[in-house]
Amino acid sequence: MPASASTSSSSHHHHRARLRSRAVPLILVVVLSVLVVTELLRTSSRGGLPPSARRSSATRAGGGNHSVAQRKILLDPDFTPRLPRQSPLSLSLSARNALPPRNTARFPALPDGHLKIVLYVHNRPRYLRLVVDSLSRVEGIGEALLIVSHDGYFPEMDKIVQGIDFCQVKQIFAPYSPHLFPDAFPGVTPGDCQSKDNAKEKGCQGDPDQYGNHRSPRIVSLKHHWWWMMNTVWDGMEETKDFDGHILFIEEDHYIFPNAYRNVQLLVDLKPKKCPGCYAINLAPSDVKAKGEGWESLVAEKMGNIGYAFNRTVWRKIHAKAKQFCAFDEYNWDITMWATVYPSFGTPVYSLRGPRRSAAHFGKCGLHQGQGSSNVCVDNGSGAVELEEIDKIPNIKADWPVRIIQRQEGYQAGFKGWGGWGDRRDRELCLSFAYMYHVKDPLST
Questions:
Q1: What is the per-residue pLDDT across 87-124, written as a single tens digit (0 to 9) for each?
Q2: What is the value of pTM for the model shown?
Q3: Confidence label for 82 from pLDDT (cuts 50, 70 and 90)
Q4: At which positions is Mn(2+) bound (predicted)?
Q5: Beta partners for 118?
Q6: Binding residues for substrate
Q7: Binding site feature residues for Mn(2+)
Q8: In whole angstroms, what is the distance from residue 226 CA to residue 433 CA?
Q9: Domain of 126, in residue numbers
Q10: Annotated binding site, which residues?
Q11: How many structural domains are present in the chain?
């Protein structure tokens, strides 16, 4: 072979070797790129973010209005949820729970950034009329979905809600409310111990609370309704189960100011920027008698129970503490949260609000007072709340700083509770509410 041919052959061989040496890493890069893209598409179908990003967004307290919420539910495999056997009335109310919202012809589409508002009620029709009237005057209310959650069935309360025509409205009824079971648990069961009865001496059933008192269905319904409502609104309704934004919760004795809706929207938008560690937003100070400081700043303080809103990420943190919530010997849901659930989060639970209230507590009667002739509280139901012009328009500024009130007054970790929640049946029903939308078929007892 000529020298030139030999040299040319050697040159071609060396060139192919160099190409192969370059091609190997190139192929590896292409393969790795395909794997990465495949993984991103797979995680996107699960929630739009890779696992690390999902974890970081799920663990941030406040999150955005459309945050990707943590979906995994931790259940105790040793606990079997058991729900009471429903009566005909309870079953008929459950059927009503599945009905779609009303007024959709008048309000056919809910805009992006709209609020879902949950109004929970018992049986104070005079109060409810005032709240409904106040809501009808709220700017932007036609954009909202109003969900009214009933503890028990009372025709006058039902009629008032049926008359709402200023927004989409949906009614839900707690089908296991003690008020629906006159002669069976969770109502009054024949053979139940009363007051401070000694179970052995009387031959009755029941577990006393830490003060020796047996359960009162009228009292335990407070906590049962709130917990059933929360689980249902977040995990059991078609209208909300895929909603990750903030939901606003109000009671039948909260007078809502005309600027409340717009102020809530402003606070929701500002929270991730101004107070990323805040868990919620509030329409009023945690002190129910306070009107606000009037500062030119936002306020971060202890989470209150007047007009509070949080998102699904925060709900997941609350739901994860179901055992603590259901085991604490305290019949008030809010005191239970302050004394045991919030402290278990490990950091102060701050809520963001404006320097002026946009809702007011006007009731003098407790939630289940004033219904019987022997325990009538004095209240004419007028609920007069004086409004200034500034309360009728949005009054929160985006450029305001945030003042943090670090000293949190009131109920805290270490408070042992007022009792009323010692019966194991109430605790098991409470825990069953936390599981009922996450297991296939809860048992009926």
A1: 999 999 999 999 999 999 999 999 998 999 999 999 99
A2: 0.81
A3: very high
A4: 253, 361
A5: 147, 249
A6: 151
A7: 253, 361
A8: 11
A9: 82-364+380-434
A10: 151, 253, 361
A11: 1
